[in-house]
What we know:
By secondary structure, the protein is of the alpha/beta class. The protein has five helices and four strands.
Amino acid sequence: MPEPFEPRIVAFFCNWCTYLAADLAGTSRMKYPPNARVIRVMCSGRLDPQFILKAFADGADGVLIGGCHPGDCHYQEGNYKCLRRFNLLKRVVKEMGIEDDRLRLEWISASEGDRLRTVMIDMVEKVRALGPLNWNASLEEVAVS
């Protein structure tokens, strides 16, 4: 009997807010699925869209971006830059055949460990319902035809 599908999620978290929320959730012993691999970035505005596409190309079933709330960025306007890039990237990945629920942006401050837990549970459930991405297989089919 095959094992149930467990999604692989890559999470890019801002060093000053969302990463600290993940730390708070951990030290508070909040339970959430261990499906995400967290990559700490200094600011969500420094996240290059190529990193997200590379994550999908390398087998991620979903990508979560976490940053400071708008107006609270330690680098003044980094999260606004992230939001502009995210909106453009969302259109690009949709054109590539990747469902909307596989890419997500959330503003989570350092004191919101419970919010991080809720977002992680919701993201894992949505991606699990979508099933594996199999993006490379669909790219090969396009290349052949």
